[in-house]
Predict the structure.
Amino acid sequence: MKMKCFSSVYYTSIFVVLLSCGEDDVDCSAVLPPPNWFEIGFFDTQGNALIGSVYQQEEFRLYNDNTELLLRPVPFGDPERLQVIFSNIQSNIEYYIELTATDTDTLHFNYETINGPCFSFSNLTEVIFNGRTIEFEDDSRIDLIK
C-alpha cells in the first residue's frame, strides 16, 4: 500500500513538473527593469569626496567631438556622485569631463548590452580614467581618485 501511494505521488509530481516546464513565456509584469545608469565619484587620496566640496557646480560637462552631456548628481541619492545614463554615451569612445574651467579629465567607458527575457540592460565592463584602467567591484558605482 505504501509503495502504491508513493508511486502515485511520484508520478503526479512528475506530471506537474512536466506541465510547468512546457511554458516558454516569461511573465514580465512583476519584474522591474534594472537601472540604466551608473554613478561616478571623484575623491582625493584620503577618500574625501570632491564633488560638492572642491567641485561645486550643479552640472558637469561630459563631451567629445560628437557629443555633449551635462551630468548631475544622482537624484534622490548620493550628492557626491554623478549619474551617467548608458543610452547617453557610447561604449569604447573617449570622453572629457570638465570639472572646472581649468580641470578636465579623460574618461573612456566600455560596456555591453545584454538582452534578457524581459528587458535589455547594460553592464559596465571597463573604465579608463586619464589613461589608467580603473579596478571596480561594483559596476554601478565607480570611484575615481584625483
Observations:
- The CA atoms of residues 73 and 79 lie 5 Å apart.
- The helical segments are 2-21.
